[in-house]
Specification:
389 residues; alpha/beta; 14 helices; single chain; globular; binds pyridoxal-5'-phosphate; 3-stranded antiparallel sheet
């Protein structure tokens, strides 16, 4: 058996075709391909606006800036996420408020959200994460869903959808519940541009602000300057913006990947089903809980939890898997365990019992379109050997 990496990007003919078009065009940065990817994305989700950027981190920074988050404001984030979700709050000198997550889904539940919002009335915005590609419980009976609770509490909602293209909750696409949503096209995400991201919103004000701040605070982008009929050497700067635009080189790969997104999702679901079938009777292993239909899950990650009674620790498990040629990863070491957040906000793991229980045993298994059933069988039998000696 050849080594099985944790992640592997499937690249086909389309990527080469679209990339070659860009290379031949004589213009490598933001232009027709980036605009096309925006149109495709907005069309797929059924949102008014999509703004292509060079990372999901950039999209989240732009989103917070556009909704007016500033010095001293409080923004809710899950303790169990990648640092990007929280760092963007610090970019604006605002402060994250960390929430615990549910065991076996790593999601913020409406109950958790409501409890944190009730005990912290100053929270202005929330950035919950559709963890692993599973949609958060955004809507319920009109007052019980995460989006509904945010509205009631007058809290702006930014969806961290970095894992969740495409995913649904109650027949509605992830990315359409909040004031704004941010997707990632980083190298190991469900579709990739190498580096890249997308901000989507139905709010014209948020879109206009994000679009201007994406490119230096200039009131229209370079593409318009070069292609509009008007004499267009002149532009105005209305704010000290950022350099967050997505180059066409990246967008070309993104279009190719976008066209295969549904097929990719189905392939990852095949992997997940195989794991459920082959691993569910190992008593010292907790598998992730899928709360809705399999088809509504983006299946970006398959994080399992090695329970304390297992014959090996999580760290030893990862070593043994590596010895057998199987790559794994950990999502995530929680933010209260990271030096910066821990010291700055005086955080204690006792306040995050579920995240702590997840962290101690969690390990993410390979899950990507190119993973063959033979490889999946090998992964599962190796896990069985390690955990049921
Ligand atoms: C990857 C990731 C991000 C950041 O995405 P980039 O495109 O790398 O900036 C944000 N949030 C979560 C949960 C992620 O996994």
């Amino acid at each position: 058996m050849n080594p099985i990496p944790f992640a592997k990007v499937p690249i086909g003919k389309k990527e080469y075709t679209y990339l070659t078009e860009v290379l031949k065009s004589g213009w490598l940065t933001t232009s027709a391909k980036a605009h096309k990817l925006e149109d495709l994305f907005a069309g797929y989700l059924g949102v008014r606006y999509a703004c292509a950027v060079n990372s999901c981190t950039a999209a989240m920074h732009l989103a917070l800036e556009a909704i007016g988050i500033k010095n001293g404001d409080k923004v809710l984030v899950p303790a169990m996420t990648f640092t990007a979700t929280a760092e963007v709050i610090r970019y604006l000198k605002a402060d994250p408020v960390f929430a615990d997550v549910e065991y076996r889904t790593s999601l913020i539940t409406p109950e958790i959200l409501s409890q944190v919002l009730n005990s912290n009335r100053q929270i202005k915005a929330a950035i919950p994460v559709h963890f692993g590609g599973q949609a958060l419980e955004m809507t319920g009976n009109g007052t019980s869903g995460i989006a509904e609770l945010c509205r009631i509490h007058n809290v702006r909602l930014i969806e961290d959808a970095a894992h969740a293209f495409p995913a649904r909750h109650n027949n509605q696409w992830v990315g359409t519940f909040g004031d704004v949503a941010c997707f990632s096209f980083y190298a190991n995400k469900t579709i990739t541009t190498g580096e890249g991201g997308m901000l989507v919103t139905n709010d014209q004000e948020i879109y206009n602000r994000a679009k201007i701040m994406r490119l230096h605070g200039i009131d229209r982008d370079a593409w318009n300057r070069f292609t509009s009929g008007k004499p267009s050497w002149e532009y105005d700067v209305v704010a000290p913006g950022f350099k967050y635009n997505m180059p066409d080189l990246n967008a070309a790969v993104g279009i190719a990947q976008f066209e295969k997104a549904d097929a990719y999702r189905e392939q990852r679901q095949r992997c997940a089903l195989m794991y459920y079938k082959k691993l569910s009777n190992i008593s010292c292993l907790d598998l992730p809980v899928c709360k809705g239909a399999l088809q509504d899950h983006a299946w970006h990650l398959f994080p399992v939890i090695i329970k304390p009674e297992a014959p090996v620790s999580r760290n030893r498990f990862i070593e043994l898997m590596a010895e057998k040629g199987i790559g794994t990863s950990v999502h995530y070491k929680p933010l209260y365990r990271m030096t910066y957040y821990r010291q700055k906000y005086n955080l204690d793991e006792k306040d995050f019992p579920n995240a702590e229980r997840i962290w101690k045993g969690t390990v993410s298994l390979p899950i990507y379109p190119g993973l063959t059933n033979t490889e999946l069988n090998y992964i599962c039998s190796t896990i069985k050997c390690i955990l049921t000696p």
